Amino acid sequence: TTMELILGAVTGTLVTTPISIITTLQQMILPNERHSALDTCTTIIKEEGIKGLWSGIKSSFILCITCGSFEKKKKI
Predict the structure, then answer these.
(1) Cβ neighbourhood burial of 12 (10 Å; 0-12, 13-18, 19+)
(2) Segment 6-17, tens digit of pLDDT
């Protein structure tokens, strides 16, 4: 249903966005200069506040809804 699609998108983006941001930042740092994921998370919070972990969530949500809608239409 539409409600399941929306709930899945919200839940998915709330959980995966911070993980994605931390992973992306880790990949941008040279291997010999990397710190732990927890250190990266702490740095983000210090520099951008807690909201920094969810920067870009709007585009992630839209992408999730778009993909979910496509998959739902494909089954019809």
Answers:
(1) middle
(2) 788 788 888 888
